[in-house]
Specification:
Length: 310
């Protein structure tokens, strides 16, 4: 099975996102940011020793705002750009369709369909915090039904964000519980993050088609990651934990190093704590086995003809 990073994002130039946005986004992590095209994301994958990444752009045109920069309000990385960057990195990058559902629900639904059928995108990105809506909003029903029809997962952000114009009351994982109740077959990948980690774990554990994206811990302390993995194990949800890096460039706490190194060090934490270690099979599943099955990502060693467009 290939190793898979489930959270990479493309932002190549200030035409994709204003500088103020990038500075605000990275302020808690030291303020240093880098622009990323497909080649830059593959460099990040290589640094971490990861085979494949799934990448998304963004469409925050409706909601981006900063009072000091009223003319610089659009954060927008088109899906066609994402498709081109992934196609230029065959077998290394796969696309994730990003839409603003409330900009135009019908148009968003058609765009999801187009990107999956035309480009082979593997997932849909949902950003309730940045788009200012409750994920259970009934107006989004056509979007969820389209994802069910196409059998693609939804990846959604929860928890902390440095962007002030992204209301955190939309970032509660418990708001996703309604989706799990209403759409029993909908696959949802939940980004677990402070301050709602336990809430996120509970929501993932409740719904068999929910998965836990652990990207928040990619730049952090392996002891915190180990605690989360143990909680997932205790609720019989460890097999739905997946690796991600959030671009592998945010050192949140603890020692530095590449994201994958944090994950591979949890057994040293377990040894010191006298707790259960991850088995090789469990670690392999987290680092790519689970995600590759969920996203239908082929093993490059077995299918050298596979491309990022599917």
């Amino acid at each position: 099975m290939p190793t898979v990073d489930v959270l990479l994002y493309l932002t190549e130039t200030p035409s994709h996102a204003p500088v103020w946005w990038m500075e605000e986004l990275y302020r808690p992590y030291g303020g240093e940011y880098r622009w990323t095209d497909g080649a830059a994301l593959v460099e990040l994958l290589d640094e971490a020793g990861i085979d494949v990444g799934v990448a998304h752009g963004s469409d925050l045109r409706r909601t981006t705002f900063h009072p000091s920069y009223p003319e610089e309000h659009e954060v927008y990385v088109p899906n066609d750009y994402t498709a081109a960057q992934c196609a230029a990195q065959p077998g290394r990058l796969y696309g994730v369709v990003c839409v603003d559902p409330l900009r135009d629900v019908r148009e968003a639904t058609a765009e999801i369909d187009r990107c999956v059928r035309e480009y082979g995108f593997r997932m849909m990105k949902l950003l309730p915090t940045y788009h200012h809506h409750d994920p259970g909003d009934r107006r989004l029903a056509p979007v969820y039904e389209k994802c069910l029809e196409l059998d693609i997962p939804i990846h959604t952000h929860t928890g902390f964000t440095p962007i002030v114009n992204a209301p955190m009351h939309h970032a509660r994982p418990v708001l996703l519980d309604e989706l799990g109740i209403r759409y029993r077959d909908l696959k949802v990948v939940v980004y677990l993050a402070f301050p709602y980690v336990d809430e996120g774990i509970a929501v993932v554990a409740r719904h068999p088609n929910f998965y836990a994206d652990l990207s928040y811990y990619a730049g952090g302390d392996p002891r915190e990651l180990y605690q989360v993995l143990n909680k997932l194990r205790s609720l019989n949800a460890l097999d739905r934990a997946v690796y991600g890096s959030d671009n592998n460039d945010k050192q949140k706490s603890g020692p530095g190093g590449v994201a994958s190194g944090i994950f591979h060090s949890v057994n040293r934490v377990a040894e010191r704590a006298g707790g259960p270690e991850l088995t090789p099979d469990e670690l392999e599943a987290i680092m790519g086995g689970t995600a590759s099955r969920l996203l239908r990502i082929p093993d490059r060693n077995e299918d050298t003809g596979a491309t990022a467009a599917g």
